[in-house]
């Protein structure tokens, strides 16, 4: 589904990615683990075309490196960045509707209702708080909202950047239970996590990054 070969990225004179090779198969969870500065977030930003890179990023047979972030998103490659970035002054429902409007255009209230109900099935807490302002929610609830908003975009692959960041152990477990449920629905997931134990427990395949290079790869169990 996604194939990355010999990918390089730079911040000024600093080489952040040094010839990365990874692949993500359809319907699998692939995780990237490593310490701060290893290049995990940079790799997700590269796939989303938020930064310039050298090398190849292919979605099926389509090369993404010459595309804008908007065109990449229309392939259904949805990026949930670290820090959640919900719209704090809008309600939960409004945040979810923006996921549809932003990437697929307005289809009318009936279409919104259909998509939102699917999200509410995965995230019952969002349904309970559908009229609440996003900025008044807890960190875990905002993480759920950010993930739900991405799913509103008819996603083919979710890229999750540190979904457990700043959450209590109980909320971390809840977020990973949700990731498992999304995966059971057939979603392909590329997961960046510092919580290696939790990430490997859900991963079909894992890559360990160190200073911009893949230094180890294998199944989650390995």
Question: Your description of this structure?
Answer:
- Helices cover 37% and strands 28% of the residues.
- It is built from eight helices and ten strands.
- The protein is an alpha/beta fold and 222 residues long.
- A hairpin with a 2-residue loop joins strand 1 and strand 2.
- A six-stranded mixed β-sheet has the order 6-7-8-3-9-10, sandwiched between helices.
- Helix 3 runs parallel beside helix 6 (139-151).
- Residues 102-110 have low confidence and may be disordered.
Question: Can you lay out the helices and strands and say which pair or pack?
Answer:
Layout: E1 2-11, E2 14-24, E3 29-33, H1 40-47, E4 53-59, E5 62-63, H2 69-74, E6 77-80, H3 92-104, H4 109-122, H5 124-128, H6 139-151, E7 157-161, H7 169-184, E8 188-193, H8 196-202, E9 205-210, E10 213-219
Parallel strand pairs: 3-8, 3-9, 6-7, 7-8
Antiparallel strand pairs: 1-2, 1-4, 4-5, 9-10
The biggest sheet, with number of strands, parallel, antiparallel or mixed sense and barrel status, is: 6 strands, mixed
Gross morphology: globular
Spans of at least 5 consecutive residues whose pLDDT stays below 50 are 102-110
Strand order of the largest sheet: 6-7-8-3-9-10
| Fraction of residues in H or I helices | 25-40%
- SSE string, helix = H, strand = E? EEEHEEHEHHHHEHEHEE
Indicate the proportion of strand residues.
25-35%
Structural class: alpha/beta
The N- and C-terminal alpha carbons lie at a distance of: 23 Å
Mean pLDDT: 90
Number of helices: 8
Radius of gyration: 17 Å
**Total E-strand runs:** 10
